[in-house]
Design brief:
Elements (H helix, E strand, L loop, with lengths): L7 H13 L10 E6 L2 E7 L9 H4 L3 E10 L2 E10 L5 H7 L3 H4 L3 E6 L3 H8 L5 E6 L5 H11 L2 E4 L16
Parallel strand pairs: 5-6, 6-7
Antiparallel strand pairs: 1-2, 1-5, 3-4
Helix pairs in contact: 5-6
GO molecular function, one term: zinc ion binding
Family: Belongs to the cytidine and deoxycytidylate deaminase family.
GO biological process, one term: pyrimidine nucleotide metabolic process
C-alpha cells in the first residue's frame, strides 16, 4: 500500500494558503503558519488592526517608495507601492505567538517576506522560512540577510496551491 498523503511542505503551505483566505486586502492575500517539527503552533494573515476598517471597507492606503537598485550593472530607480493599512501576515504571526515557541521553528508563508517582515523574522528565533510566491522587489537583499543569519530560506517553486484559495495578486 502506497502512502498518498501530502508531504509536510505541501501540507503546511496548503494551510498557509487556506489562512490567506481570511484576508480582506484587495491587493494581496497572504497567510503564514508557524511550525515546530510537525506541530502547528500558530497561523496569521494580513489585515487591518482589530477593530479598524480594512481595505475592503476603506480602500488601500498606498505608500510609494523609490529606491536605487543595480540591475545588470546599471543603477535604476525601483518604485514600490505598499498598502500600509494592513499588518502583514508575518507580523501578525509574530504578534500572536510566543518567543519560546518560535525558537528553532519554521515559518511557512504564501508569499516571500518583504524586507521589513524579513528583518522581524530574522530576529524572532525561527530557523527556516518556506514560501511559495516570490516578491522580486526585495528578494536579493532578503536572501543575502537570511544567508548571513544562517536561516534556511527556500521557495517551493513547483508547489500548486489549492484552487479555492487563489486570489488575484497585484504588485
Amino acid at each position: 500500500m502506497t502512502d498518498t498523503r501530502k508531504d509536510w511542505d505541501t501540507y503546511f503551505m496548503d494551510i498557509a494558503y487556506m489562512v490567506s483566505t481570511r484576508s480582506r486586502c484587495s491587493r494581496r492575500h497572504v497567510g503564514a503558519v508557524l511550525v515546530q517539527g510537525k506541530k502547528l503552533l500558530g497561523t496569521a494573515y494580513n489585515g487591518a488592526p482589530m477593530g479598524m476598517p480594512d481595505c475592503s471597507e476603506a480602500g488601500c492606503m498606498i505608500s510609494e517608495e523609490v529606491s536605487l537598485v543595480h540591475i545588470d550593472g546599471e543603477q535604476q530607480m525601483l518604485k514600490k507601492q505598499r498598502c500600509i493599512r494592513t499588518i502583514h501576515a508575518e507580523q501578525n504571526l509574530l504578534l500572536f505567538t510566543d518567543r519560546i515557541d518560535r525558537e528553532g521553528s519554521t515559518v511557512y508563508v504564501s508569499d516571500e517576506p518583504c524586507w521589513t517582515c524579513a528583518n522581524m523574522l530574522a530576529n524572532s528565533g525561527i530557523v527556516e522560512i518556506v514560501f511559495h510566491r516570490s516578491y522580486p522587489k526585495d528578494t536579493d537583499k532578503v536572501t543575502q540577510m537570511m544567508n548571513s543569519k544562517g536561516i534556511v530560506f527556500r521557495q517551493l517553486a513547483s508547489y500548486e496551491p489549492p484552487t479555492d484559495t487563489l486570489t488575484t495578486v497585484s504588485n
